[in-house]
Structures are given as C-alpha cells and as structure tokens.
Design brief:
With about 100 residues, the protein is mainly β. The protein has strands spanning about 1-10, 10-20, 25, 30-35, 40-45, 45-50, 55-60, 65, 70-80, 90-95, 95.
C-alpha cells in the first residue's frame, strides 16, 4: 500500500495504491483509514468514499472490485484541511491491516 498527497494551504489530492501480495484474488474490497488532522474528503475516484468524523471508508467501484494476486488498484480523493495535512498512519483492507510502503 502506498499513499501520496499533493497539498496546498487549504486542500490536497491523495493517491492510494493497494497491492494484493496474497495468493488468492481479493473479490470486493473496503479500505479504511483515519484522517487525524481534521481533513475532510470532498471527492473520490475509482471507489466510493464516505467519512464519519476522522474515519474514512472507501469501497470498490463496479469495475475494480477484483484485485488478482500480484495485482493492484489505484484510487484517489480530494480533500480540505485547516493547515495540517497529516498522512494516515494505518490502513485496513477488508478488516486486515495493510503494510504501508
């Protein structure tokens, strides 16, 4: 899993790549993480994002729900922040912790 963000004084664009290092395909995925600095997701692509407080949940789009072994999906979102844009420190995919590169 990789997370990168480009930011400006009140907003940011984030890119997330989720890689399946397992031996079986992931069929349907839900990615969860927290934005701990008060950031708000305003728009997402390649998935459907919802946010409650700091907790963000992104579910797959209709066309990218299967991640084959060794494969990956890329998604992204735009957001706002109030001056601090701390990157998420932990991610889960379908409830399992993800290693962040």
């Amino acid at each position: 899993m990789t997370y990168t963000a480009n930011q400006w004084p009140t907003g940011f664009t984030a890119s997330v790549t989720v890689r399946n290092d397992g031996a079986t395909a992931v069929d349907g995925w839900t990615l969860r993480f927290a934005l701990s600095s008060g950031q708000q997701v305003t728009q997402a692509w390649s998935g459907t994002a919802t946010q409650q407080g700091a907790q963000v949940t992104v579910t797959n789009a209709a066309w990218n729900g299967v991640i084959p072994p060794g494969g990956s999906v890329q998604l992204g979102f735009n957001g706002t922040h109030g001056g601090t844009n701390t990157a998420p420190s932990a991610f889960t995919l379908n409830g399992a912790s993800c290693a962040v590169a």
